[in-house]
Amino acid sequence: MLNTDRVSGSPLLGEPDFVAIERGIVEFRAARPVAITAGRTTLLVLPVDGLDDRRLAAFRAAGGNAQPVLVLTARRAQTLGIEAAGPVSLTLSATDDAASIRAAATDVRIDRRFSWAASVPAAAAALPLAKLAHRLPAALCVEIDAGVPAAFNPPVVHIGTGAIAQFRERAIRSLAVASEASVPLSGDIQARFVVFRGMMGGEQAAIIVNEPDFSKPITVRLHSACLTGDVFGSRRCDCGDQLRLAMKQLAAAGGGIVLYLDQEGRGVGLANKMRTYRLQDGGLDTVDANIVLGFDDDERDYGIAGRMLEMLGCRQVVLMTNNPAKVDGLSDAGIEITGRIPLLTPINGDNRRYLAAKAMRAGHSLDHLFDALAASEPTIVPDETEAAS
Predict the structure, then answer these.
(1) What is the pTM of this model?
(2) Per-residue b or e along 247-263, where b marks 16 or more CB atoms closer than 10 Å to that residue's CB
(3) What pLDDT does residue 87 have?
(4) Which domains are seen in the chain, by residue range?
């Protein structure tokens, strides 16, 4: 018979607490519930993202006589007119259906006011789990007996709040090189792709352009994946233009590194990015659209970029960016920033408002945008050689 006491926590399975979180992320991505425990309190937690009336009825039944609450971030609560310093729990009525609950988590305005209270630790822990799963940061929670999760078939994944708080740092330290190969690129650029994997899921890539001299500071671009801009040439953002300009500049300078990070939509994921686009179409800017959905204006963490550079033997960099948060984040990760190179890309009628929000609300260094605004020009599309200067 298998001795589970010896196998638990072994190199074969990993540490139980952190394995439970990895499984919990998968469950949330599949819109399935998990159990979260803090002290003597155990909650059954279900992401709001993907909720329908059938699943809501089953969730209410699992809670027995207890009334579920809707847990939201402080940012989302403030959108609803609730002054909150931390996550809040909104009391639901027996008549609330899935559509009204989703609206309370996503709509700019809602039809009624909720009674609310500060969220208990077990409920608050559901929000970072939802963010890790790239779900909306909103969850239904109901208190249950500690033995209930095991009564489900299959059993519900059980997670402790302490492990959730430590997970991101542990996930960064778990990063490992999965594979690498030479990939010649258009424009006669020679590159080597190094692919990393870790507990966070997904894959990160370092694109080493030509043969940079690692005895000197390396020119580095931290680039968050942008399917719409990088692949399809979206005019709503400057991401694809920045990536292409960075590759050209690195090749012309003799080499460098692009870290291609799995952080779509400033870390909220592709589905949530599309939700923010819909809100922007309704009049919000890119910062407020994130806040309305309950996110911070930028959810990215550059600790993973610092770890990748460390593993590549690169501790001093000249950073290609307009974003001061990248400079600060990489410095906090232990990488020395010896200089900064701006990436000034074309402004058009579709990305002008987006760039203005980045410059005026997030502090991005976009001098060419301010020049265009001062000149009251409807659009400006600089030549790439001018943008690189």
Answers:
(1) 0.88
(2) bbbbbeeebbbbbbbbb
(3) 95
(4) 4-170 (3.90.870.10), 176-263+300-388 (3.40.50.10990)
